[in-house]
Every structure is written in C-alpha cells, then in structure tokens.
Amino acid sequence: MADRYKSYTKDLTTNGEVAIYTVPTTDAGAVPPVYPTTAIIKSIRVCNDQGSSSTITLQLLDASNSNFEASICNVQTVGANTAVEILQYGPIVANEGDVVKATAADANRLHVILSVLEISQT
Questions:
Q1: CA–CA distance, 112 with 102 (Å, rounded to integer)
Q2: Distance CA 104, CA 112 (A)
Q3: Exposed e or buried b per residue across 55-70, where buried means at least 16 C-beta atoms within 10 angstroms of its C-beta
Q4: CATH number of the domain bearing residue 25
Q5: Which residue range(s) make up the domain with 51?
Q6: Which label site among 22, 31, 35, 120 has the fewest CB atoms less than 10 Å from its CB?
Q7: How many domains does the chain have?
Q8: pLDDT tens by residue, 36-80
Q9: Which positions ≥6 away from 58 have C-beta within 8 Å?
C-alpha cells in the first residue's frame, strides 16, 4: 500500500459546476502505473476573498452508483472575507472515479482547498 497526502485547489471563476477532485482510476498501462485507489477526503476549505458573502454547493458524484450525486453541502454561506471548513463532522471516503464538484453562486469570489489521503494498492 502506498499512502500519499495531497491537496487540490480551485479558484471558482464561474458560477457553473466545476470538478475539484477526481479519485484516480486504475490504469496498469500508464507510466507510472495507476493502482486501485481509495481517497479519504480530510478537509474541504472554502475561502471568500471578496467584500460580499456568497454561497457554495458541493456534491460527490459516486461513479460506482450510476453517477449518483450526493450532497456534501447545499447552498452553504461563506461570509465576506472569511473561510469555512465544510467537513466539520469527519472525513469522506471516496472510491475510484468518484468526483467532488462545486458550484458557486457568484463567479470570482470563492477558492476551494481539498486535502486528501490517497491509498493505493501497489
């Protein structure tokens, strides 16, 4: 098993849906090979760098369940010039091909930092 801590950042420059993170899928032919991976999403931090509040919606697309989209948070308010931790009640486990997606109410206000532990079967 190989454990890797990673962070992913995204500036939400649109009010459309944006993929923040996708759990790697197995690709034995890749160089280097990509092994089966489980992700433990430890933190999702959202920062508003503007003088007006905004909202964010986060979803987890479950690739193994007909691409069902489960809400992580729905229309969460992020105050002006503040940051919020979305995962206050514990981590989220995600599997190969699962995608964390964000939709901001306003473009160019919110930034997302996602911290994850990727566990690969090597």
A1: 9
A2: 10
A3: bbbbbbbbbeeeeeee
A4: 2.60.120.340
A5: 2-120
A6: 31
A7: 1
A8: 999 999 999 999 999 999 999 999 999 999 989 999 999 999 999
A9: 20, 44, 71, 72, 73, 76, 86, 100, 101, 102, 103
